[in-house]
Amino acid sequence: MYSFRASAGLVDLAFTDRYGGVSRAPYAELNLAINGSDSPEAKAENHRLLLADFADGAPYADLYQVHGDAVVDAECGVRPEADGIVTTERDLVLLVRTADCVPVLFADEAAGVIGAAHAGRKGMAAGVVPATLARMRALGATRITAWVGPHVCGKCYEVPAEMQEEIAAVEPAARATTSWGTPSLDVGAGVLSQLAREGVETVDASRCTRESEDLYSYRRDGAGMSLGALIRLRGA
Single GO molecular-function term (predicted)? Predict the structure, then answer.
């Protein structure tokens, strides 16, 4: 069920893998996508199973992700168009979804502020990670830790040279080359560079989604399959 799971004080967080759910092939098993042709009943059951294991009985708040830099305050039962989400509410799980893009989880336990971001190529360049940090700091966060989850690596993310130049002009650390020698982007490296400039302590819990069969990958598997990144601040 998990590619990575950890607790830091009262903060619980995890990045999922594809196992432990009920979706049938080709979506097997723990598909958390909103869209796509996987059974709605299966996806609902996958969410129920995941939340029951991660934070039994806790509500969750998520997003309709649009590859931008908008950041919202979490509200249970509402799914706004945004790519960053933050909260000071205890025992509310934040959830973002990825399938090659970079999931980032954030916490300042002492200040009681947590956040999550979905940083794809466009969102990374637009600055969704710094925007999420800025919103957390506006809520009182001062010592933020970030966890970076599974995403497609630079050796596997081939792009046209023009696209590489466009993104690298904004974030030079994202420039990369595939293992077969063509232009690529390393969005994860771009995110890590942004976090470093922001002075944020970072835990790199990433693996390449395309290279890892236990993870969903848009480039390898196609659309309609998603992993989850979850975080909550326990009340006690």
Answer: copper ion binding
